[in-house]
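Appendix C: a fully annotated inverse folding record. The material below is reproduced so that readers can follow the format used throughout the book. The structure is listed first as tokens, followed by the designed sequence.
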């Protein structure tokens, strides 16, 4: 079975847009089962609303999202989020709510998280054992 890799919203965005920032990530992704946390889907949908995308472009995004395993909310994920947020707050290193859900999804399923926003997740890495995968360019 292929190793699962959770992608942060920024990585999924780079891939969807075929951004030059996606190119160095492609070798890391090859052969992996790619996953997104439920909150990343919501963030991507918000992006379409804020930018006033056409229905056809929204459908293009929806179609591209079918290639990912979507990590849904469940009780264990909520507990992982609670422990993570409490640990970050206790040490004076708060984490944004969406980032906390993404990190909690990786922790709950014990999979690495690939992001270009390393600073958003470093507290979760040091405090909770998040497996933070650094992109090749970092």
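Designed amino acids, in order:
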């Amino acid at each position: 079975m292929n190793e699962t890799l959770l992608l942060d919203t920024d990585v999924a965005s780079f891939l969807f847009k075929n951004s030059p920032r996606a190119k160095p990530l492609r070798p890391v992704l090859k052969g992996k089962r790619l996953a997104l946390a439920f909150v990343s889907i919501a963030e991507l949908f918000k992006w379409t609303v804020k930018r006033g995308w056409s229905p056809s472009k929204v459908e293009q995004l929806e179609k591209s999202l079918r290639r990912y395993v979507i990590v849904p909310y469940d009780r264990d994920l909520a507990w992982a989020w609670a422990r993570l947020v409490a640990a970050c707050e206790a040490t004076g290193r708060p984490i944004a709510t969406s980032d906390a859900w993404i990190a909690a999804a990786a922790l709950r399923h014990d999979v690495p998280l690939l992001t270009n926003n390393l600073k958003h997740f470093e507290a979760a890495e040091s405090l909770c054992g998040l497996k933070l995968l650094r992109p090749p360019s970092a």
